[in-house]
Amino acid sequence: DGGITQSPKYLFRKEGQNVTLSCEQNLNHDAMYWYRQDPGQGLRLIYYSQIVNDFQKGDIAEGYSVSREKKESFPLTVTSAQKNPTAFYLCASSIDRLNTEAFFGQGTRLTVV
Amino acid sequence: QKEVEQDPGPLSVPEGAIVSLNCTYSNSAFQYFMWYRQYSRKGPELLMYTYSSGNKEDGRFTAQVDKSSKYISLFIRDSQPSDSATYLCARYNTDKLIFGTGTRLQVFP
């Protein structure tokens, strides 16, 4: 089945640690996105990538980093510089940069303990 | 002013009711608008998208864009308990989607 797979579903991190969230897609999509969702704030764009080896900062990139070494993979690292990392993280992809139809993964819930 | 604004709800209706969900947007240059449905602890799924003004219908769902008032609406006819979810409106801007905060809908039997 084609789709987007995020792992793990739940993740716990100690303060001061970096953690990497996985996002893999087998839809052959060029564009991939990371969003953060907090109660009452909707989805906020962290980073996006329109093509392999290229990515751009979204609205809330501070404290996060990404890489796009392969078309199907777009991992997100939450660094210790992110002051409030506890949130629901969503990865999405679309055929190309026009992004008129984005497909989402099932999300990773990150909790800092 | 946020680029896409949406009443967070919750909106609670009885089964069979007609539901109206609304968003406003601030930039009149936008052409593509989308509605996503998100069940609790799941990723959003695309319900409908519309281009420019007018209505688009798909089964029990109708999406409407009024560019003169910068208003986006989603109507759900004959609402079902399975429609209980958060509904997110979004608009396309150059190379990314901008989302509203979402409206939580509860349909009770």
Tell me about this structure:
The complex is a heterodimer of chains A (113) and B (109). With 113 residues, chain A is mainly beta. Chain A contains no helices and eleven strands. In chain A, the strands form two sheets. In chain A, strands 2, 4, 5, 6, 9, 10 and 11 form a seven-stranded mixed beta sheet that branches. Chain A has a four-stranded antiparallel beta sheet with strand order 1-3-8-7, with no helix packed on it. In chain A, strand 9 and strand 10 form a beta hairpin. Chain A starts with a strand and ends with a strand. The model of chain A has no long low-confidence stretch (mean pLDDT 92). Chain B has 109 residues and is mainly β. Chain B has no helices and eleven strands. In chain B, strands 2, 4, 5, 9, 10 and 11 form a six-stranded mixed beta sheet that branches. In chain B, strand 4 and strand 5 form a beta hairpin. The radius of gyration of chain B is 13 Å and the shape is globular. The model of chain B has no long low-confidence stretch (mean pLDDT 88).
Largest sheet of chain A: 7 strands, mixed
Cα shape of chain B:
globular
Shape of chain A: globular
Q: Based on DSSP secondary structure assignment, what is the total number of beta strands of chain B?
A: 11
Please specify the SSE layout and strand pairing.
The complex is a heterodimer of chains A (113) and B (109).
Chain A: E1 4-7, E2 10-13, E3 19-25, E4 31-38, E5 42-51, E6 54-57, E7 64-66, E8 76-78, E9 87-94, E10 103-104, E11 108-112
Parallel strand pairs in A: 2-11
Antiparallel strand pairs in A: 1-3, 3-8, 4-5, 4-9, 5-6, 7-8, 9-10, 9-11
Chain B: E1 4-6, E2 11-14, E3 19-25, E4 32-38, E5 45-51, E6 54-58, E7 61-66, E8 71-76, E9 85-93, E10 96-99, E11 103-108
Parallel strand pairs in B: 2-11
Antiparallel strand pairs in B: 1-3, 3-8, 4-5, 4-9, 6-7, 7-8, 9-10, 9-11
